[in-house]
């Protein structure tokens, strides 16, 4: 391995960035930069203070991060025989503020709740129907002191499907099977009543896991949500 040593005021009093700067970018937007610096061993105390956890990189190079690089964890040192010490430094930042969303699927249940009014008497029932629920795994880099959240990211939609019995092995969105609205079935065909069904549907994100990993000035939050689909029906016989 070759090193760059400059005969300058920086070499005498500061830290010299060496070739081989490595940048690793993760799906959440997290960036880790690994950089080696050389500094005179005689200046070790000053150099350690410069490279303390939470500080910026001493050469000011924050590429490709959008709002800085912060050193984490503690710097690693290798003292050499030529009067210099190598400082192996890692620093973290981010390349975006919107994060990343990945989707998966899991077998689950659609909850159907019905209230039936017949001859002035109300009967409530609840039924569960097998369905396929979407799993949303959302990861994002935020400041280390940011509060946890279980809010869906802007623009993200979480869905549920029901088996398409007309096409074995296929699925359709559950709203296609249970459309929202008011539906009227007039008397006829052995039915002596007008049947009015008012239906509302909803899909929310049920929190499965909310975790975070600290990287000094930043932390990577991972939010896992599972689709929870519910149908509410009010059925009246008149």
Describe the structure concisely.
The chain has 3 helices and 13 strands, in the order αβββαβββββββαβββ.
Describe the model.
Strands 7, 8, 9, 10, 11, 12 and 13 form a seven-stranded mixed sheet that branches. Strands 1, 2, 3, 4, 5 and 6 form a six-stranded antiparallel sheet that branches. This protein has three helices and 13 strands, in the order αβββαβββββββαβββ. The mean pLDDT is 90. The longest helix has 7 residues, at 44-50. It has helices spanning 9-13, 44-50, 174-177, and strands at residues 16-17, 22-25, 30-40, 70-71, 76-79, 84-94, 100-118, 121-143, 160-163, 171-173, 181-185, 195-215, 218-237. By secondary structure, the chain is mostly beta strands. It has two domains: 9-94, no CATH class; 100-237, no CATH class.
Q: Which regions contain 5 or more consecutive residues with pLDDT less than 50?
A: none
Described by the principal axes of the CA atoms, the overall outline is rod-shaped
Largest sheet: 7 strands, mixed
The ordered string of helix (H) and strand (E) elements is: HEEEHEEEEEEEHEEE
What count of domains describes the coordinates? Answer: 2
Could you tell me the strand content as a percent range?
over 45%
- The helix fraction, in percent, is under 10%
- Total DSSP helices: 3
